[in-house]
Description:
The chain contains nine helices and 17 strands. By secondary structure, the protein is of the alpha+beta class. It has three domains: about 10-25 and about 185-275, Outer membrane lipoprotein wza fold like (Roll); about 30-95 and about 280-385, Outer membrane lipoprotein wza domain like (Outer membrane lipoprotein wza fold like), CATH 3.10.560.10; about 110-185, wza like domain (wza like fold, 2-Layer Sandwich), CATH 3.30.1950. It is elongated and about 90 Å long. The protein starts with 11 loop residues before the first helix and ends in an 11-residue tail after the last helix.
Amino acid sequence: MFLRDLPSNLGSGIRSALRASAIGLLISMAGGFLGHAQDARAPFAWAKPTDKGSASVGRVPSPELPPSQNPGAWAGPMAMPVDAVRRQVRAEIDQMPAVEPVSNPSWHRQYTLGPGDSLNFSMYDRADLARLAVPIAPDGTISYLQAVGIKAVGRSIPELRRAVEQSLSKYHKNPRVIVTPATIGSKRFTIIGRVREPGSYLLDRPTSILEGIATAKGIEVGSIGNSAFELADLERSFVVRNGRKLQVDLADLYFQGKLSENAYLEPNDYIYIASSLRNEIYVLGEVNRPGRLKMVTPLTVTRAITEAGGYNRKAYKQRVLLVRGSIHKPEVQVVEVDDVLHGRAPDVALQNRDIVFVDNRPFQIAERALDSAIFTFVQTVTSEVVNDEFLKVSIPAQ
């Protein structure tokens, strides 16, 4: 729906690489928004009205009654501890949770080969049989002398050497092969969004998130008059690893200097630096045209759902989830749409970068719907930012 060309300032090679590498990650990603929740102890804040006159006012479930007898209840003060409720809800969610960073990635300890690497081969006491800069083929194999089509991808150099010697032993007596790296090019990470030079970069040494951003020449900066400002919204930026959001807070890392958030990058990691210039909201989930809506004029929850084509046949129509806040500390508000439509409550005005999420099943605990909303948001925003032009309202710094 939102497919367009990548920014014209990217070369065609980078543009193709981005399209190939990033779209492959789209199917299972997750993300979020601007602002901080009140309670730092609960990353997924319980749904609660933002003011007493809000349309999000709901009933607190009775701890004595099962959920089936509390159809109008939503998240609020619970008899169960928050952590216990979270574990119970998490077990029912069909989306994969965020992945935790590790302090010493496995590829730091032992490098594994892949397409993009090339190797030097020689045989002990046979200088005439040396072959230099032999590339690993796109199918992950490599050949040396009679050892043809030997699997190299995923193997370390010692493992490959043994496999080549075993294959050559059919033609040579006790072959002793020497294998050394010629070029290292199979490990890469991708960064796009509001950085000066988005693209795909070589990961040839241990590299942290901040070093990755610095490799892309840092955050993009605009200027109006004599005032310069950064164009990134780090509250909504994220890192994806193996199709799952990496549990790091880029805003805390960048603005608060929390180096505990400065995780090492791993091969195929994807960094998205969101723009702070967009005036938009997202309507996601069970609507006919899910995705981004430009807020040219003020929007409310019900009007935004209408602009997105209305509910589809799978939608749970009584209440929707409004997500407002950073990717790591989202604030949530349950909007009782049924009450709004029947005049029992006022509609809720939307703010820039809000997410309206329509679930496909009734929800009583907001966290259950929130996880699905964040998962859907990152999946959507990644697809759009890869294929959409960046806004042209900024003035590049001189």
